[in-house]
Amino acid sequence: MSRSTTPTSSFVKLPPIITNEMDREFLQEINTYIDHEMAKIDPEDDEQRYIIYKTVFSKIISYVQAYKKLLTQVKREYEDTIEAIKKGQREAVFLHGKLKAMASEPSTIRNYKKRGDELEERIAIITKDNDKLEKQLKELRDKRREREALTREVTEAPKREFKKDSRLIPGLSIEEATDLNLLYKNLDQLDRQLKDLNISFKTRYLPKSHKMDLKTKLDDKVAYRDKLLRYGQIYRAKRYRLKIALEAAQAYNRVKPPHQTVGDAVFYAISQAIGSQSQEKETNQEQSGGDGQPREGSPTSGQPATTSTFEDDDPNKEKEAEMMLEYIEKFNELFEDGKYEDAAIHAANSPKGILRTSATLAKFKDVKGRFSGRSPLLAFCDAVMASVSAVNNKPNDQLSVECVECALNENRLDLLSYWISQERLTLNEEVGDLISNHCHCKVPCKCSCQALAQNVYTKIKLHHQALICLLRQGRVHAGIEYARNRAPLSKDQFVEVLRTCPSLPLLHTLVEEDEQGNRALPVGTIIMVLMENNQLDLVLPFMQELQNKPSFDDESTSMFQSAVLDDTETTMEQWHSIVKLLQDHGYEETSMKLLSSITVLTAMKTALFNSLVPDSPVNETQTTNIEESAQPVQG
């Protein structure tokens, strides 16, 4: 088949700047970036505008590979010119300052001389004042020395002399006063009397102010008693409300109506109880005759008769129920006031997770409207995830799925990535499917959804889905290595992967040999799967590229021929259909090489069979098949 030759120019023809839709999207992103950055700066500031366009020029250079060398030289020339201009401006400013300094040098010297004369005058004045002060100080020191000399002449004070008391002890005679044993006995008696007097002084006699202190203490005790009585009434009423709340919560747990939280049930029951209690109080007042005192046989006003049975309950349970009721009331108050952020944090930190439920999440989901920040639903999900480490309890499967769905709807992949990395979610296959299906990017994925889904599938050991996520990220070699080393896949699983996300890099990776010389899929199986899916745009380039690659074992043999010879699963009918496909699309050379490879493969099988069974009658039939396979396939 002859081919016409065309004269070629001495210049290398460069490809056009815009060749596909990706280039147009890149130009649109560049224009959007310029408009966005120019809106942030002052349009009159040349330096900032230069920085923006310099950044854009660098992005264009890195994107356009064909014009990279030319654009780099243009950029370098522009930067050198601008740098020379800036350098000239800096030198001009420096020389201007230096010129001004030289022009003002005579006046500066004159001012320095004038200042020196003024300082010399001041030094003379200071020296004169110092001499005067030094003279006055010397006079004061002389006077002080004279005073000290006069004080030393004062005589010393006379020593005190103790006089001996020669009087007799009252009540004792001379003999008794000289009896040592009697004196010790009287001394002990006097000591006891002294101790008794001290004790009597401290206990029997007190100052008059002590009476006033006792009266003040009595008044305080009475006030404290009245306060305790009021608290007792409040606690009795609260105990009654806790009983109603406990019964309502137990009834809710038995029924669990949809779209209603335990807080709603408790709040409704308490409202009904307070209404009935007020009606009972009015009835008691009518029965007492309007004087406020209950009649004999009537129930006490403001206190139900059933509270006596609740007093026998465990006090710890009462305290726990009281805490839960306060949490529910506080949550309802915050939610009704529109403080959704505070309500979300309050619900996430509820005791025993009574508000960390899907019903509470549905309540936040029902809130409609526009919000300046994040939505109330996302605030609740974030609060639940933030409190996982504090309560040491992950949300259940359903709540985890709903939180993931909320983050995806809000397009908060950063928040979702943080939850997964910090192990705040209960991971399952549904979570991975939600994240993976949220991605609408072409291969490779640019929104990081596939990377998150791969992380989820790997943690729950769904290696097949993890491999698909790797392929959708464009990490074909990493995916195949993952499948071979960490999670070996069967042939059917590889075929399913090929059907799910086919691409030329995946086809080449599947047909490559590993360290043991094995291929993930035979080349015939790969081609037949693509033909079944009508993906001829992948089949023909794949076979052509394999034909142009030399084999690792023998450089004179192409990779395609080597793969065909190693394929023992594809039948001759399937090979002939592939040859016919190549001929129909004008790949005559590739079809002939494939046909020769098939012929060699058939001959090798026949020779192997003859060596094992030399007298078999099948040899003639196989030889005929070889001759038929060597004939060109007609369209």
TrEMBL record:
SUPFAM superfamilies assigned: ARM repeat (SSF48371)
Skewed-composition ranges (Polar residues): 298-309, 618-635
Domain Translin-associated factor X-interacting protein 1 N-terminal: 32-141
Disordered, as annotated region: 276-316, 615-635
Coiled-coil segments on the chain, per record: 64-153
UniProtKB keywords: Coiled coil
Gene3D superfamilies the UniProt entry points to: 1.25.40.30
Pfam families: Clathrin_H_link, TSNAXIP1_N
Domain of life of the source: Eukaryota
Keyword Coiled coil: yes
Descriptive protein name: Translin-associated factor X-interacting protein 1 N-terminal domain-containing protein
Species per Swiss-Prot/TrEMBL record: Tegillarca granosa (Malaysian cockle)
